[in-house]
Amino acid sequence: MNIFFKKFGDYISNIMAFGMYIFIQQIILVPMLSGSLTESEFSKIILFMTVLNIVSIVIGTELGNTRILEDNNVSKDSIYNVLIIKIFSVSLPLSIFLYLFIYSDSLQFLLALLTCFLCSFKQYLSSYFRLENKFKYILYGNFFYGVGVILGVLLFIISGNPIFSFLIGELVTVIYLIFISQKEKIWNINLRDSGDIKEKKIVYTSYLNLAMVSLLLNGLSYLDRFIIGPLLGLNVIAIYYSASAMSKFLSLLVNPINSVLIAKLAKQQKKYSYTTFFKFQIIILIGSCILSIVTSYLGVYFLYNQYFELAKSIILPVGIASGLSIASLISKTFVLVDVGTKGIININLLYGIVFFILAIVFSNIFGLQGFAWSSVIARAIQLLQYLILFSRKGNSDVYR
């Protein structure tokens, strides 16, 4: 047992930490909001959560991954601290999107924007704990997130503003992580623009490469939520979300696995053969598909029962698409560390183009089921492209 936890303890701790966060948000908070808001208001919450996930990963998680990957080259906290402030300062496109497409009310807009920034900073700060293998503090932080959500829900009941449910949770978590990071001397609060040009170039280039791939990958991952409304109507967003919520829950759990994988793979010289990689992916794919289908069915039935009859016809394709997505995300991690970012952007562009075209055609012919199956086909092509990319690199002498 001790050997097991020594080998897999980091993965388990990180999954538990992120799982707690997603459980509180997806299993408790969102279903509660769905029963308390109108269909239009709930659709806006879904879009807001989508933006929140994309922004926090692109800004916070990827800058944190940069901190981990470049630790041997550039370890000055100040360079990364200044960079995240610069990123926040040039986030005008995010502000415009939130204002024009989701919340035109000034208060709602400001609260949503603040929540995005807090969540991004939390993801960035968490990388310092991952770098030092202090995963238990991330777990504790997500416990405090739950406490903050409870306080936020109380504010929502009083004010009628659902954004408080997310905002207070993120705020409490950030306060806790800052306190612990100073107590354990894990993160240096240094905002002086130190470091030479060479060091900044290394960090900025590394982050931009990761951020561009992440923005494309995560934007395309949530592409279905952005285009289903114009194709099939606003009401369908709630139906599709209810069917895909639990499968997205599983997909989100891949993020902490990938975070640990990147940290582990970046520090070791071992390269994996294509045969080992392929067998691993087959196991991941089959397991993910089965688990996604089962959890999607149970999720709709127990959490969004009001949509069950309308959503049950798309549970199978949604589950298969989720399994393919999970396998692709894990494949991307191995490709990213062993091959680099070259080719990943093209793979995801191809996925986006295929899905967009098929979604338009299939939705017009088969409706919601056509939309769901178009995602399956596009995801299958995406995974196949990752396998091909890794196999080509695997034929080099480095991998023999």
UniProtKB/TrEMBL annotation:
The keyword Transcription does not apply. Its main location: membrane. It is a multi-pass membrane protein. This is Polysaccharide biosynthesis protein C-terminal domain-containing protein. Keywords: Cell membrane, Membrane, Transmembrane, Transmembrane helix. The lineage of its organism: Bacteria, Bacillati, Bacillota, Bacilli, Lactobacillales. The keyword Transmembrane applies. It comes from Vagococcus acidifermentans. InterPro entries: Poly_Biosynth_Transport.
